[in-house]
């Protein structure tokens, strides 16, 4: 079986790692696998296909900024890529993020509709069925259900400085993304599946396959983190993100820091140097880390707090679970779906007083009362090997009709 995955990035970022991990699983099981990407490739040798060049990306960014014409740039680059697809003759094409300034969806979907190749499309956010944005729950917008227009997030990713094409973009996506005969939609959370079923994608088969993680890396891991930072007698509240923004909950952590008791400390991983310089005394800032070091910090923390404002199915939640650390998260998007019985708490978005109460509850009960529940849930539900085997079974099912 020959599979071609298409994603904005390869080998880095959450979706880039998912694509690379699935590629490796396919190779291990004797299949042929290729990754087509727009930028930031990690180098899969001859099996990595870059769509376009840096210049193509810059031009695509420009027309997005000027005309709100995201995903309809890179025309020549996509024509060249489609020609390569025709030469490869894949058995299955697996789409991931098509936003990201690298592919022309008109050219790509014209090819998909005429190729008779089974297509799997994993939605990692809501961009596929909106006129502009990747997430809308943070502002409570529901225009995507009928007709996007006058986009309140025009200057959010993918940012447009002047023109609002949200109505035209929404209509274009409805036209292009409908009528692909052998297309199956996959989402990592039930929340996103429910939204997709209310959109113009509702006529497709929609399945839920949660993201998986590497349980050989993310497991209870001893380390010297507490002693190195003088936290042996502290209650550690951990937050992890690749980029800390208001949407990821950075400002909520700053507000929370003003309501903590002595001996309660926040640790934030993934901060920039500028962010680290302006932290209050009871917040420790750390830059981005590799998986092995992250596992040690997850394991050392007493509780993992994820106050995300909009998220599909955060991988950080799964990593914390696998390291035996209970979770407190907002009921936003699919973030709460990872929190099973005995694994932590899901609270209303922005409910500061309830978050403080749940932190104290974990402190009273002790982390050890949650640890085994967390580890078992991660093993049973979020093993990368198990989840990616579901994709392989889906490919085989589609090929067998």
- By DSSP (H or I, 4+ residues per run), the number of helices equals 14
Rg for CA atoms: 22 Å
Helical content band = 25-40%
Write the CATH fold name of the largest domain.
Rossmann fold
How far is the N terminus from the C terminus? 14 Å
CATH-level-4 superfamily name of the largest domain: Glycogen Phosphorylase B
CATH architecture of the largest domain: 3-Layer(aba) Sandwich
Key phrases:
alpha/beta, 14 helices, globular, Rossmann fold, 401 residues
Please describe what this structure looks like.
- This protein has 401 residues and is of the alpha/beta class.
- The protein folds into two domains: 2-212 and 384-399, Glycogen Phosphorylase B (Rossmann fold), CATH 3.40.50; 225-381, Glycogen Phosphorylase B (Rossmann fold, 3-Layer(aba) Sandwich).
- The chain contains 14 helices and 13 strands.
- The strands form two sheets. It has a seven-stranded parallel β-sheet with strand order 3-2-1-4-5-6-7. Strands 10-9-8-11-12-13 form a six-stranded parallel β-sheet, with helices on both faces.
- β4, α4 and β5 (119-122) form a beta-alpha-beta unit.
- α1 (13-28) crosses α14 and α11 (315-322) crosses α13 (368-381).
- The model has no long low-confidence stretch (mean pLDDT 95).
Quick summary of this structure?
The chain is α/β, with parallel strands linked by helices. 38% of the residues lie in helices and 16% in strands.
């Amino acid at each position: 079986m020959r599979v071609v995955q298409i994603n904005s990035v390869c080998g880095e970022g959450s979706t880039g790692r998912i694509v690379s991990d699935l590629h490796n699983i396919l190779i291990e099981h004797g299949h042929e696998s290729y990754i087509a990407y727009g930028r930031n490739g990690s180098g899969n040798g001859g099996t990595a296909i870059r769509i376009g060049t840096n210049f193509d990306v810059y031009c695509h960014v420009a027309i997005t900024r000027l005309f709100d014409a995201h995903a309809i740039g890179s025309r020549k680059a996509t024509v060249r890529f489609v020609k390569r697809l025709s030469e490869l003759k894949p058995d299955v094409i697996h789409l991931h993020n098509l936003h990201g300034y690298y592919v022309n969806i008109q050219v790509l979907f014209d090819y998909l509709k005429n190729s008779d190749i089974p297509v799997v499309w994993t939605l990692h956010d809501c961009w596929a069925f909106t006129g502009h944005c990747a997430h809308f729950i943070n502002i409570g917008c529901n225009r995507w259900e009928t007709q996007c227009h006058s986009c309140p997030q025009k200057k959010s990713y993918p940012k447009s400085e002047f023109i609002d094409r949200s109505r035209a973009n929404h209509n274009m996506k409805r036209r292009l993304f409908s009528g692909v005969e052998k297309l199956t939609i996959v989402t990592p959370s039930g929340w996103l599946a429910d939204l997709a079923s209310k959109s113009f994608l509702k006529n497709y088969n929609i399945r839920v396959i949660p993201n998986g993680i590497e349980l050989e890396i993310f497991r209870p891991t001893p380390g010297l983190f507490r002693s190195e930072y003088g936290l042996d007698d502290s209650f550690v509240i951990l937050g992890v993100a690749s980029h800390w923004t208001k949407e990821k909950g950075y400002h909520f952590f700053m507000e929370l820091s003003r309501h903590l008791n002595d001996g309660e400390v926040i640790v934030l991983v993934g901060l920039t140097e500028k962010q680290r310089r302006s932290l209050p005394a009871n917040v420790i800032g750390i830059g981005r880390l590799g998986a092995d070091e992250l596992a040690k910090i997850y394991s050392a923390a007493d509780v993992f707090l994820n106050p995300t404002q909009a998220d599909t199915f955060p991988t950080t939640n799964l990593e914390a679970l696998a390291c035996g650390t209970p979770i407190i998260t907002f009921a936003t998007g699919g973030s709460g779906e990872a929190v099973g019985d005995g694994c932590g708490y899901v609270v209303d978005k922005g409910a500061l007083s309830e978050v403080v109460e749940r932190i104290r509850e974990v402190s009273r009960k002790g982390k050890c009362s949650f640890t085994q529940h967390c580890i078992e849930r991660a093993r049973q539900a979020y093993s990368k090997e198990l989840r990616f085997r579901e994709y392989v079974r889906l490919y085989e099912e589609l090929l067998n009709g």
